[in-house]
Design brief:
Helices cover about 40% and strands about 10% of the residues. By secondary structure, the protein is α/β, with parallel strands linked by helices. It is globular.
Length: about 425
């Protein structure tokens, strides 16, 4: 899949030799779509999976919980087992449930309590949760809320590792914070949502454990495009969404991982769907957590919201996560090279070494907002991230090298003609 030069013909030739090319025809892709790390495209398999559940609902009604094939009662655990190979986990360590933010609440809260003898609120001297200042905001919102619920001041119990360049996090700084601060839980993203930096999960997990802290990760911007080995490197817990590279639809049900070492722990946020399955419908007053990651389910599994993931995972497994990652690296390498060939007004704000880069590229420009708006009017869908990033995500299952070439050429044209000046600057901030 190497692209030998910067011509359209070379990009087209690379597409012709792409082993994943045939998957594009299984998706409905709107225009030149480069926003798959916000919301993936609809696949035929996902649509068929929803139709199948609707038919089951029509045929079985309430009996679908046990009579549907597969039954709905174990939907979260069954889909968890299908996701597990993508994150390098055992079947029982993964469950599809909740939303990313809800799962952060329950898992960070649970492990913070575990670090403090089961109750951080009752501990004499609770430590801190270690995060970084480039996190997606919801991570901090949830963690600060969990600290407040325990009567703790987040300003005292949330340790924030600062970025040195505003784009990336130096893992050595994280290690120094672990060595010098009283950290109970490390919680980091696998990929920074703005710059696309891919953090070293194994290194950070080892560092956390070396200093007596639990290691948790938000995999929202890597799951489905970067292989993981959560069990192999001993990660304690993780959360993610499925609507980005896994193409499970807007607001799709999320996922979580809990290392088997901690299975059976009572969640900080408990609900009836996390009760052990064997006695769940005995409606006991005492909560007995399931002996799996399913214990962290809170409410009834939303079957219609989970069904698209069922179909999407079939496509993903057929393609293979290693082939997906290889193509992702090739696409982003090509995009970086094309951006370097544009005007000096454009800068690559992502790590250049693909070992340290996820599935998207941050292209920096002083008029990023207006460029983004102009691209959308030209049928090229990208993301703007303040203050100056055009975020481009070439999703490997339905994006080709010629698509990437087209994005770069559009950017070149808009910059050289200054056509972006037809658009209003972003109100309330610098573009």
């Amino acid at each position: 899949m190497d692209v030998p030069d910067m011509t359209r013909a070379a990009a087209r030739a690379a597409d012709e030799g792409d082993a994943l090319r045939e998957f594009r025809d299984r998706f409905d892709v709107p225009g030149t779509y480069m926003d798959g790390n916000s919301l993936g495209a609809l696949s035929e398999a996902s649509e068929a999976a929803v139709d199948r559940v609707v038919d089951q609902w029509r045929e079985h009604a309430v009996e679908g919980w046990t009579e549907a094939d597969p039954d709905w009662f174990h939907y979260g655990e069954r889909l968890g087992a299908k996701v597990a190979p993508l994150v390098g986990a055992r079947d029982e360590e993964v469950c599809v449930c909740g939303s990313t933010t809800v799962n952060i609440h329950t898992l960070v809260g649970t492990f913070f309590d575990l670090a403090n003898g089961g109750s951080a609120a009752a501990a004499d001297d609770p430590g801190t949760v270690l995060v970084n200042d480039l996190d997606f905001p919801t991570d901090h919102y949830a963690i600060r809320a969990q600290l407040r619920q325990r009567g703790l001041d987040p300003d005292d119990h949330l340790t924030v590792v600062e970025s040195g360049d505003g784009r990336t996090i130096d893992e050595a700084r994280v290690e120094r914070a672990l060595a010098t601060e009283d950290v109970d839980v490390l919680f980091m993203p696998s990929v920074l949502y703005r710059s696309g930096q891919l953090l070293d999960v194994e290194r950070l997990t080892a560092a956390a454990h070396d200093h007596g802290a639990y290691a948790g990760f938000d995999l929202a911007h890597s799951v489905g495009v970067v292989p993981h080995d959560l069990s192999g490197v001993g990660v304690d817990f993780a959360v993610w969404c499925h609507y980005k590279y896994l193409n499970a639809g807007p607001g799709a049900v999320a996922g979580l991982y809990c290392n088997e070492e901690h299975v059976g722990t009572t969640p900080a946020l408990a609900g009836w769907w996390g009760h052990e399955k064997e006695t769940q419908f005995e409606m006991r007053r005492e909560f007995t957590p399931a002996e799996s990651a399913g214990a962290f389910q809170i409410g009834t599994v939303p079957v219609l919201a989970a069904a698209p993931l069922d179909g999407a995972l079939d496509v993903h497994h057929e393609a293979g996560i290693d082939r997906i990652r290889a193509k992702s690296v090739a696409l982003t390498e090509y995009l970086v090279a094309l951006v370097d060939d544009l005007s000096d007004a454009f800068t690559v704000g992502s790590p250049r070494d693909p070992v340290h880069r996820g599935g998207h590229v941050a292209i920096e420009h002083g008029e990023a907002y207006r460029l983004t708006e102009a691209l959308k009017d030209r049928d090229v869908v990208v993301d703007f991230r303040p203050p100056n990033v055009v975020r481009v995500a070439p999703a490997p299952l339905y994006t080709g090298f010629e698509d990437v070439y087209d994005v770069a050429e559009r950017l070149r044209e808009l910059h050289e003609t200054r056509a972006y000046e037809e658009y209003e600057p972003r109100s309330g901030g610098v573009t």
